[in-house]
Amino acid sequence: MVRVRASLSRLPSYVPGRKLPGAVVLASNESPHGLLPGVAATLVESAGGVSRYPDLHASSLIEALAAHHAVEPDRIAVGAGSSEVCGQLLHTVVGPGDEVVFGWRSFEAYPILTTVAGGTAVPVPLRDHALDLDAMAAAITARTRLVFVCNPNNPTSTAVGARALTAFADRVPRDVLIVVDEAYREYADPARVPDGLALLGDRPNVAVLRTFSKAYGLAGLRVGYCVAPPGIAAHVRRTQVPFSVSGLAQRAAVVALGERAEVARRAALTVAERDRVAGRLRELGHDVPDSEANFVWLPLGADSGDFARHCADGKVMVRPFPGEGVRVTIGLPEENDALLALAASRRG
Ligand code: PMP
User: Fold this and answer.
1) Ligand 1 pocket member 213 (CB < 6 A)
2) Which residues are recorded with the post-translational modification N6-(pyridoxal phosphate)lysine (predicted)?
């Protein structure tokens, strides 16, 4: 009898946002704006290349990212979405028995990928829907190898500020890797939410994680990356599944990076809609925390499943976290109006 690793029986499942034909989908924090103008043409032009393997080292993409962030290319490692890079970072520093600290609730891949890497997940409860950095620092033990700081935090949308993040980083031992996951960076107000790379990027134990899946509108192509100290980035590259970032994804990401102004314009539209949706939901009596991301959090507790079902009946898909809350991704104005109408009708 083949023996399956015992730890895998404790593995939670990743729950994807539900998509129903014809429904408005506000469940997976994707961009509602579709492809960036230059990306579609690049995909068509590059399609013929898929009979060949892509560039193993993703050199053009890494150079474009290095220029974008004004860092040396040896500080960058890419993967098939930042989820894969999360896994690569874990495989780089975590082994059996090692602990990985993160706020909870947060991105659901953290406990899954920690367990897959053989580590032990140490979830630290949020406080007022936000990361409790003091409690996270206190949860670090001699066995801790990595700490995830999801900023802004998925699914609660809140963010920690520069002072708190710096004070936290000062408390984390230098042999523990701090991974600042900035998947939603483009939606955050830079006056309130620090750029992890600018703030902490010079530290020898900090890696910053970014993705093309959200503001860049490439969720289906799977490409993300980290910026880390060269010694860490080199090992993160070694842990990558060979060729996991397709040639189409590499090219599209380079083009998308060049369309920075359009990315910023689209993100600003989403932010304006987010603030409108949050304001209206508050008028309807919901206790919506301040969002720095492209989604809002409704802490509905035991009512979460019912709220999501009511929305699904009205052909709007949102993401319930049973017993905790509902995450609503910001879509186009008419999609958001459909959600708001359902929220209002449920209340009345
Ligand atoms: N980090 C966070 C906080 C996320 O919410 C997500 C996507 N839901 C990711 C990373 C991973 O995104 P991707 O793998 O598509 O880059």
Assistant:
1) yes
2) 214
Which H/E stretch holds residue 263?
A: helix 260-283
Q: CA-CA distances (angstroms) from residue 95 to 25, 115, 118, 242?
A: 38, 10, 6, 21
From residue 255, how far is each of 39, 56, 226 by CA, in Å? 6, 19, 18
Summarised one tens digit per residue, pLDDT across range 129-138 is 999 999 999 9
Instruction: Decide: 166 and 199 in contact? Cβ < 8 Å.
Output: yes
- ipTM of the prediction greater than 0.95, yes or no: yes
**Could you identify the atom of ligand 1 that is nearest to the CA of residue 223?**
16
Among 181, 216, 330, residue to substitute to test ligand 1 (most atoms within 8 Å of Cβ)? 181
| pLDDT tens readout for residues 192-216 | 999 999 999 999 999 999 999 999 9
pLDDT digits (tens, 9 = 90+) for 8-33: 887 888 887 777 889 999 999 999 99
Structure tokens at 80: 């098939």
Got the DSSP string for 70-133? Answer: TS-GGGEEEESHHHHHHHHHHHHH--TT-EEEEEESS-THHHHHHHHTT-EEEEEE-BTTB--H
Taking the mean position of all CA atoms in its chain, how far away is CA 237? 20
Tell me the best of 107, 222, 295 to mutate to test the pocket of ligand 1, counting ligand atoms within 8 Å of each CB and taking the most.
Answer: 107
Atom of ligand 1 nearest to the CA of 84: 14
Between the two ends of the chain, the Cα-to-Cα distance in Å is 58
* Bridging pattern class, strands 325-329 and 144-150: unpaired
Atom of ligand 1 nearest to the CA of 184: 3
d(C-alpha 344, C-alpha 320), whole Å: 18
* Domains of the chain from N-terminus onward: 16-34+261-347 (3.90.1150.10), 38-258 (3.40.640.10)
